[in-house]
Amino acid sequence: MTIKRLALLTVLLTYVLIVFGGYVASSKSGMGCGPEWPLCNGEIVPAFHGETLIEFTHRVIGAILGIISFVLFAKILRTEVSPSVRAVGYWMLFLLIIQVLLGALVVLKDLPTSVIAIHLIIAMLFLASLIWIWRRAEEKADIQTYSSDRPDQQQRIKGHFNIVLVLLLLLFGFGAYVKHESLGMICGSFQCRNSFLPMTGPEIIQTIHRGLAFILALYILFLVFLSLKKGWDGKIQKRLIFSAITVLIQVGLGVLTITSSIDISWAMLHLAAGTLLFALVTETRVYLGSAAFLKTKLSIITNHNLPNKTEV
């Protein structure tokens, strides 16, 4: 199997693990194996029932992901790839080790909320590194080989996507905190305890989470408008439109999660849409710096500069 296909498999498995982790949290099955790791209730393979089955399944998916990730890393080391892909491979392995240690800490320390939030953010960064490897695996040299210049517009577009990624990571961090501290229902749709302004710490945290979601949705919609107005690359425009649709779906699912009093199915779909949005934005950001994108830009510039036959 090629690095590209193996990386894509790892991306998909990571997505499944993140979403299933949301189910573990929503069903309150995080301690289904007790305060033990790597054993589960004192056994390598426990009795399969209830919360134990859910938590053990999550661990099994994580173990499979870890094995495939190590295989991917070994393949990167044995294959001729660009220095940037090799460097991201090392980061991927580092993030995997940190993620495993944080997962163990979450269990051994009885689900501390701050560690859970960091655990989710690291999972997203791990997913981002895998997407980078997947999209850039077939590049044998760094991007400078294809173009020595750095157009201002390209840098500005990259800056916009960097901001979106930071907002998403903050959104996931606050969302995990809100989820595990059961703060989702502390405020209504438009006010907190008969006040439009949050007054207590928990109310402020939940309001920040909602505010980040609102800002993120507006920002992505603004980028769609900007891409059409400025005539950005068509592939970037399509990715932005898909991202805008996804963020609107995620916001809608967030509203349904609250109105359903944190129903598990809506909460899982909310996380699934948010993770998909992060993957889409990450893939677009990686594409912006890829050889494929720069080749497209160079082709457009070259064709634009070619003399018209009638002028020759």
Give a description of the structure.
- The chain is mainly alpha-helical and 312 residues long.
- The chain contains 9 helices and no strands.
- Helix 1 runs antiparallel to helix 2 and helix 6 runs antiparallel to helix 7.
- The longest helix is centred in the C-terminal third of the chain and has 30 residues.
- The C terminus is likely disordered.
Overview features:
312 residues; mainly alpha; 9 helices
Please work out how many helical segments DSSP would assign: 9
Instruction: Tell me the series of helices and strands, N- to C-terminal.
Output: HHHHHHHHH
Strand percent estimate:
under 5%
Low-pLDDT runs: 145-150, 298-306, 308-312
Largest sheet: none
Please give the share of residues in helix: over 70%
Distance between the termini: 50 Å
Q: What is Rg?
A: 22 Å
Principal-axis shape equals flat
Q: How many extended strands?
A: 0
Concise overview:
Helix content is 73%, strand content 0%.
Furnish the topology, listing elements before pairings.
Elements: H1 3-26, H2 50-78, H3 83-108, H4 113-136, H5 152-180, H6 201-230, H7 234-259, H8 264-288, H9 291-305
